[in-house]
């Protein structure tokens, strides 16, 4: 059993540089800091399988910002390209979050206008940055976008078919090229406004490769400009009485320009509450051997001794001890990271 020095917990102060993802473990995987994961002035590419919790994770990010006094002047923007976000945001993430989320823009009747093409996305993002105010902008998802070139080619094919002809061609290169140009022109503007751009992508089968079975569209531009690149996959379905009530998602941070580390964490997402941060933290301390357990009985001296997992989770929530739990997780994470450091002479002083 490992031990944690709980008398002197590592309490990470909230830094204005970081945005919490809503998941303590994901924050740590991204920055080694318990209170912050994504970083100001950057772009994040969140890639995932269908139903792995990508939109839930982005909405959790917005909820954290909406309930953070330091972010009261931030615009929280959801560019719902797929027109598929029907979550009850007020129920899941609070009325304060629902009141703050906005589309990129609205028409004269007040109806939301979302991006259809990469050019629309560029226009919407440019309008947002030109305001000069900080924002969190989420594109959900990149795969739902087309391009003006693609639309023109599709129309040309339709007309050709009507005449009994055919117009061959692939459209992927047009979209990837446009995306590269857009990101190149917008990243510096995002930086100047202390903002954050999150681009959500769907995984695709990487046909012909046995080593990397999954990929995502968009060419190399998304990977090149991303400070963090993350891949989400469904580890297991969470069931009660044979009914699926959530998913356990594995999140791999495959690119990290903050710490340079490649890390994986598991996050539980319930359809009627969102991320189960307390439960994930409890499971982490048990799995890493900091809290001994026998079957469902966990010895957590910091919270009253031996308790069943569900009772321990509820006790922490009911007594408002989430911060104490996160401090324990920060301690445990830091000790693990320190234990794998290469104890060698520094090449440069």
Describe this structure in words.
- The chain has 349 residues and is an alpha/beta fold.
- The chain has a domain of 187 residues: P-loop containing nucleotide triphosphate hydrolases (Rossmann fold, 3-Layer(aba) Sandwich), CATH 3.40.50.300.
- Helices cover 36% and strands 25% of the residues.
- The protein is built from eleven helices and 18 strands.
- A nine-stranded mixed sheet has the order 5-4-8-9-3-12-13-14-15, with helices on both faces. Strands 16-17-18 form a three-stranded antiparallel sheet. The protein has a two-stranded antiparallel ribbon with strand order 1-2.
- Helix 5 runs parallel beside helix 7 and helix 9 runs parallel beside helix 11.
- The longest helix has 21 residues.
- The protein is globular, with a radius of gyration of 22 Å.
Descriptive labels:
alpha/beta; 11 helices; 18 strands; nine-stranded mixed β-sheet; Rossmann fold
Quick summary:
The chain has 349 residues and is an alpha/beta fold. It is 36% helix and 25% strand.
Q: Got a strand count?
A: 18
- What's the average pLDDT? 89
The structure class reads: alpha/beta
This entry's quaternary arrangement is single chain
Helix segment count? 11
Largest sheet: 9 strands, mixed
Tell me the β content.
15-25%
Top-tier CATH class of the domain at 40-226: Alpha Beta
- The percent range for helix content is 25-40%
Spans where pLDDT lies below 50 across 5 or more residues? none
Strand order of the largest sheet: 5-4-8-9-3-12-13-14-15
């Amino acid at each position: 059993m490992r031990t944690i020095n709980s008398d002197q917990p590592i309490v990470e102060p909230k830094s204005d540089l970081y945005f919490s993802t809503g998941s303590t473990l994901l924050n740590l995987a991204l920055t080694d800091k318990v209170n912050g994961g994504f970083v100001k002035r950057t772009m994040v590419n969140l890639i995932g399988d269908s139903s792995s919790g990508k939109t839930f994770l982005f909405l959790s990010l917005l909820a954290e910002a909406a309930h953070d006094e330091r972010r009261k002047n931030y615009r929280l923007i959801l560019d719902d390209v797929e027109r598929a976000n029907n979550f009850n945001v007020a129920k899941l993430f609070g009325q304060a979050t629902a009141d703050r989320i906005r589309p990129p823009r609205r028409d004269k009747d007040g109806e939301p206008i979302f991006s259809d093409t990469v050019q629309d996305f560029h226009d919407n993002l440019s309008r947002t940055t030109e305001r000069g105010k900080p924002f969190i902008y989420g594109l959900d998802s990149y795969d739902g976008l087309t391009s003006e070139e693609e639309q023109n080619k599709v129309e040309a094919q339709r007309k050709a078919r009507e005449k009994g002809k055919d117009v061959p061609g692939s459209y992927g290169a047009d979209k990837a090229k446009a995306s590269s140009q857009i990101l190149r022109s917008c990243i510096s503007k995002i930086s100047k406004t202390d903002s954050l751009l999150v681009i959500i992508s769907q995984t695709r089968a990487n046909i012909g490769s046995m080593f990397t079975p999954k990929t995502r569209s968009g060419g190399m531009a998304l990977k090149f400009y991303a400070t963090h690149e993350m891949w989400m996959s469904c580890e297991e379905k969470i069931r009660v009485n044979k009914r699926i009530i959530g998913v356990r998602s594995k999140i791999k941070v495959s690119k990290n320009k903050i710490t340079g580390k490649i890390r994986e964490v598991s996050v539980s997402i319930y359809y009627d509450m969102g991320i189960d941060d307390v439960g994930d933290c409890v499971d982490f301390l048990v799995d890493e051997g900091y809290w001994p357990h026998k079957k469902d009985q966990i010895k957590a001296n910091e919270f009253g001794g031996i308790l069943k997992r569900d009772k321990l989770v509820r006790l922490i929530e009911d007594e408002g001890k989430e911060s104490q739990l996160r401090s324990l997780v920060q301690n445990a994470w830091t000790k693990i990271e320190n234990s794998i450091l290469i104890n060698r002479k520094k090449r440069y002083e």
